[in-house]
Amino acid sequence: MKILIVYSTVEGHTRKIARFMEGILQEEGHQVALIDAKTAPAPGAYDAVLIGSSIHIGQYNNPVRKYIKKHVGAIRQMPNAFFTVCLGTASDLVEGHEEAARTAEKFFTENRWDPQMHMQVPGALKYTQYGFLKKFVLKRIAKKEGLSTDTTRDHEFTDWNAVSGFVKAFSEMVTSSSAGAL
Ligand SMILES: Cc1cc2nc3c(=O)[nH]c(=O)nc-3n(C[C@H](O)[C@H](O)[C@H](O)COP(=O)(O)O)c2cc1C
Known about the structure:
5 helices, Rossmann fold, binds flavin mononucleotide, alpha/beta
């Protein structure tokens, strides 16, 4: 099947996750196009679409918001899924998870889109890439969430096995919906 992965990233971690997903879908026998939301085409020429974005200051990234707003009609008509990348779900504190869930629900309601599958993926702290101000802000957020404040290195919280399980389930859904259409 032809699958389009549309992603939006600020510090590169969502792209890393999207590339990992691309590899799994290829192993499952799909033909995959992995494209930044800034330049992604309409999904109509594909059999399924998987969209992902990180959250910054309580908001999904602009390019993915614009993409979904523009193409939601087509997205709803095909097998679809969404993944969120953020730090709230990296936390052991329930508040972080609740906030991430609220942000996603608000986003889906605003766009009148209920993805067939959604995964909250714990992201990364890229302290070595942040400028002074970002480092300061993220250190405060990390402290609040009970995450590492060691700014001498980056910290990755993504559970790659869980991502793999999600993508394999998506692949099954895509394959079985095409079998159902025959
Ligand atoms: C300036 C800034 C603001 C952020 N705001 C939030 C936030 O409001 N909620 C959250 O859960 N994570 C927040 N994060 C964490 C990012 O979602 C996380 O670092 C993610 O891995 C970034 O993915 P990306 O590299 O694909 O952009 C923020 C990160 C930065 C740098």
